[in-house]
Amino acid sequence: MAAPGRHVGHYIHKNSRFLLNNIEQLWGHRTFSWTPAVLQQTATVGKDSTEAIVIPRKKTWSKEAVLEALASTVNRDPTAYHYQFQDDPYLTPRTSAEFRLYSLSQESGRSAAQYFVNSNPKFFTKDFAEPHIPCLMPESVMLRFEEMSEEALKERISLRKVTAAVDMYDQLLQAGTAVSMETTHDLLDLICLYCDRDPAQEWGPEAEDTEESGEEPRSRTGRVRRASDLLKSTWRENNNAERIFNLLPERDTHCYSALIRGMVKHEASVKAFNMYTDMLNNRMTADVHIFNALISAAPKLREKYNDRWDLIAELLNQMSQQKVQPNLLTFNCVLKALRRCGALAKTQALHTLSEMKALGIAPSLASFSHVLTIFYKAVSTAQNQTDILQEVISEVSGSSFTCQDPDDVLFFSSAMRICLDTKDVELAYKIQSLVELGENWRFLGDSYQQSIYYGRFFSLLCMMEHIDVVLKWYRQLIPSMYYPNAQGMRDLLQALDTDSRLDLLPTIWQDIRSLGHDNKSDLVEELLGLMAREKHSAEVQESFAACALDVKSVFDGDRSSLEWSASSLSHITCLLLRGNRTQQAWDMLQLFKSKNRVPSDELLEDFLTACSGAGAPERAVELVQLSAAFCLPATPRLAQRALSEFNLSEEQRSILSELESAGEPTD
Fold first, then answer.
1. How far is the CA of 9 from the CAs of 1, 14, 16, 19, 60, in angstroms?
2. Of 473, 537, 472, whose CA–CA distance to 500 is shortest?
3. Do 572 and 528 form a contact (C-beta atoms < 8 A)?
4. What is the pLDDT of residue 50?
5. CA-to-CA distance for 126 and 124, rounded, in angstroms?
6. Rounded distance, CA 192 to CA 141, Å?
7. Most buried residue, 133, 192, 318, 373, by CB count within 10 Å?
8. Average pLDDT in the chain
9. Domain region containing 664
């Protein structure tokens, strides 16, 4: 008898072929004709109007339309690892350390591949990609113009070859060839951006160490830069930018702007203000980029908070006098500078937001991030601490954001920190809903910043929510979005303890091992302490005993960094006793001697009770002798219990009597 599935498959196959045949017939005889309604409308328009309605014969779709449609049907799988590791499941990370290591390895491999592609473009002349992806094609890094000309200078500027561009510019001047002002602007911008030195290419071998990343002293991978790297980017006196600037017969605002922004970027704020003064003395007006740079550098030139704000206010007044229209980055620079202006920052920040509203400039996430930093510099016990944050979330609720400022990625992490400090879980849910809207998740930043955000969110849930809700988010976030650190797992253990769900501890221990936190002694000690604190049902105690043996295997591992403590030995021994694994518990008790650890009186009492239930007088005598070897004060009491509860031989009674009398205090 044929399987039912074969009949169903044959039916689908038969009908699908019928449908395909009809489609082919329709497609082969397809025609295009106007509907009667359209014909009537066209005739009417032709009579009553001189303009005809043009209806396109087909709709033009973008090349990514099909991919976008397919992507919209797929949701994130919370049980899967991060999508960037799905191409190579063998290298899927299990811990936060492996996640960072593999992420950097992937980026390093990608940089090495791009370096090879750009260094050997002759091997990559074919482009099979559809749609075309320019960033994956070889960059033009070879010089085409070797002769001395302005075109050659432009080429070197476009390739970001600072030294070669400066040399070409000097050769043109020596030959008496005039260089256009537009090219001179580009050259000054290049020199000032890279502080008069050749930058490492993004795909170069040393890109991670030498590439500039703006004001923050971090590399592209998030690693803190060395002091030597920072010294390399310091503005030098009379560098090529200043030399070329002084050689110019005429200087316009763009020339001053390039130098002022370069000086501010490379920690020469005093020279930047002197350059601005020189520009004013030459009866020239600044542009908005100059004012943005000077405002960001203002706090570095004054010591007192009031003086800092006075300098910022003076710059804003000069903008008004020179009729320079501020933009979003102007106000963001003001708000960022106010973070270093002490108590007056709160009042001035609100005035700044009001001014933005009056000018019709909508704040970005960076604006709100700076405001939150101003109002929540320290943890406070005030009840209305989240008022500002609630207003901000209400303002941006339901919005999809576009990046307008590099500091936009700091907003969500700062907002979640405030929720954690103030224990406001409802507001945290609103922030998380905003993150999940559209592509707002991109504003969480890199993997390091995402880990900080989700770590704060998960810690808040562990403190404030029921364990069922915590476990729901635990399964939803881990491991697809977040690798919890040891503190996150500790918060989860405390949440299980609060809601009396200690029966889940063995399962959590498996997660602790898979996440690579089984080498954290304080975390392992807390887990063992929770399991051994009180007695549970026989089924739970059996699972605890199995978990204790697994923990013991970690301690005994060759590469383990854990060291046996008296508490860990006592907890595991107690759990094995309660799980009716007496022999393994006795082996643990013998381990006290080899590790030079002292068992507790309570543990010995429990062990003697287990020996009494099992009817093992020999083991009871050994237990009392072990207590005497450690000189424990409970030895006489244990000996007395053994004499009264066990059926002993004369030799055993003699030994216990001697131990009982030896432990009694003398007058």
1. 15, 9, 10, 15, 37
2. 537
3. yes
4. 57
5. 6
6. 21
7. 192
8. 82
9. 602-667
Name every residue whose Cβ is closer than 8 Å to that of residue 567 and which is 6 or more positions away in sequence. Answer: 525, 528, 529
Tokens for 655, please give them. 């030994």
Structural domain tally of the chain? 2
For residues 378 and 45, what is the distance between their CA atoms, to the nearest angstrom? 70
What pLDDT score does 295 carry?
A: 96
- Any domain includes 313: no
CA dihedral (461, 465, 467, 471) positive or negative: negative
* pTM score of the predicted model: 0.79
Q: Which long-range contacts (CB under 8 A, 24 or more apart) does 385-391 make?
A: 385/418, 385/421, 385/422, 386/418, 386/419, 386/422, 386/424, 386/427, 389/415, 389/418, 389/419, 389/424, 389/427, 390/427
DSSP code, position 271: H
Single-letter amino acid, residue 265 = K
In a domain, 635, yes or no: yes
Cβ contact 92:85 at 8 Å:
yes
pLDDT along the chain (667 residues), means of 10: 42 42 42 41 48 76 81 78 71 76 83 82 75 72 80 90 92 91 94 86 44 39 42 78 92 94 93 94 93 95 92 94 94 95 90 93 94 77 66 91 93 94 94 92 87 94 95 90 89 94 95 89 94 92 94 86 89 91 87 84 84 80 84 83 82 82 56
- Bridge partners of 218, per DSSP, are 224
Residue with tokens 């000018």: 359
Full DSSP string of 519-544:
T-HHHHHHHHHHHHSS---HHHHHHH
What is the pLDDT at residue 74? 80
Give me the amino acid identity at 238: N
d(C-alpha 605, C-alpha 574), whole Å: 11
Residue 629 lies in a domain: yes
Tokens of 421: 């400090």
Q: State pLDDT tens for residues 512-563.
A: 998 888 889 999 999 999 999 999 999 999 999 999 999 999 998 877 788 8
Region of 631 (left: φ > 0; alpha: ψ -120 to 50; beta: rest) is left
In a domain, 533, yes or no: no
Q: What are phi and psi of 242, to 5 degrees?
A: -65, -40
**So what's the pLDDT on residue 200?**
66
Query: Which strand (E) or helix (H) includes residue 166?
Result: helix 162-174
